[in-house]
From TrEMBL:
GO MF term set: transferase activity
Keyword Transferase appears in the UniProt entry: yes
Name this polypeptide is given: Glycosyl transferase
Keywords: Transferase
Key word Transferase present: yes
Length: 347
């Protein structure tokens, strides 16, 4: 007897050209997974549609808008959505992309996120080092399923794969203060010799953008572009570097590191348990780590190591194939629904 697929309402809408490839690949893999009927987000479907599981990714998006009026409207809708989950005993699953809430939330946004967190019955974690406790977005004791963050190798293979430029360091992606791009620019200024630095990505704050422009202006070896990158541009920036530098001050799940490895570029990242596990997984010479604040000596040692290291032709990303992700998500959804057993499905 064929079992009825679980109806899963995602928190993301139909993908657009600028949508994170992780979301697009996840939607496509879930759509191809037996046992899952995946629905993308709209307020109408979330509030009035029939589904068994609500899958939240970055729930702060639900309570934020591009204007005060839109923010207020979204908060009202979110309150109604949480009430609907309570009335229908809907199983809520959350992927823990970040351990902590973003900064700058209002009191009402914080209260609504707290309500979503209390409604969550199961968590999907993206690496083995994720530990939930009283300080994280979900508390200790929340049941979890490990689903490793999928790679981007197939996704990026359609774009031109340029050769590396000798002596070039690269950084790509959205620029926030915690990502340490200012520290990277200061470190590079102290590195003498025939090196260059390519930094590309949109800065989320004007003050940060102004600071980066000022730092880059004093060194004509720096090529700085503070604009949103298309996927082809992202691949180009990553591939042109001998090494990709991601000097995040806080790093838990880095899609940037996986993106660089997916286009066969080694990465320099802060030393922590997550990155150590990634280094062991993908093979020697692909993930280089450093302690403390990044500086010129760290950059010089990294590029020297990259040139000397006998790396494999490509990093081993087999544990992050997307078919495994589909099966892992289904297991999480089934566990979440089982925790709500005895209640009617999809009211």
């Amino acid at each position: 007897m064929t079992r009825t697929p679980l109806r899963v309402q995602q928190s993301f809408p139909d993908p657009r050209p600028t949508t994170n490839p992780y979301i697009v690949m996840l939607r496509d893999e879930l759509a191809a997974t037996d046992g899952v009927d995946v629905r993308t987000f709209s307020w109408a479907s979330a509030l009035f549609g029939r589904y068994d599981v609500f899958h939240a990714h970055w729930p702060e998006i639900l309570v934020s808008g591009h204007s005060p009026l839109k923010t207020a409207a979204r908060q009202v809708l979110t309150a109604l959505l949480v009430a609907r989950w309570r009335l229908t005993a809907t199983a809520v699953v959350r992927t823990v992309h970040n351990l902590h809430r973003p900064e700058g939330l209002s009191r009402s946004q914080g209260a609504l996120l707290g309500a979503i967190e209390r409604a969550t019955v199961h968590a999907i974690v993206l690496n083995e080092s994720t530990v939930l406790d009283d300080s994280t977005v979900l508390p200790s004791g929340t049941p979890t399923t490990l689903v490793l963050h999928g790679h981007y190798r197939d996704w990026f293979s359609r774009f031109p794969q340029r050769e590396a430029q000798r002596g070039r360091f690269s950084y790509f992606g959205l620029i926030r203060r915690y990502k340490g791009v200012d520290a990277l620019l200061r470190a590079f200024r102290g590195l003498p010799g025939d090196y260059s630095l390519r930094v590309a990505g949109k800065a989320r704050a004007d003050a940060l953008a102004d600071e980066l422009v000022e730092l880059a202006a004093s060194d004509d070896r720096v090529d700085l572009t503070l604009e949103f990158l298309s996927e082809a541009e992202l691949v180009d920036v990553a591939r042109q570097g001998e090494i990709v530098v991601l000097p995040y001050r806080e790093m838990h799940n880095s899609g940037g590191a996986l993106a660089a490895l997916s286009v066969d570029r080694p990465v320099l990242v802060p030393a922590n348990e997550v990155n150590s596990r990634l280094a062991d997984e993908v093979g020697p010479g692909w993930v280089l780590q450093y302690d403390g604040e990044i500086d010129a000596d760290i950059l010089e040692r990294a590029i020297t190591t990259v040139r000397a290291e006998g790396r494999s032709p490509r990093p081993d990303l087999s544990a992050r194939d997307w078919d495994r992700a589909g099966r892992g998500h289904l297991e999480a959804y089934e566990a979440a629904v089982a925790s709500r057993s005895g209640r009617r499905r999809g009211r």
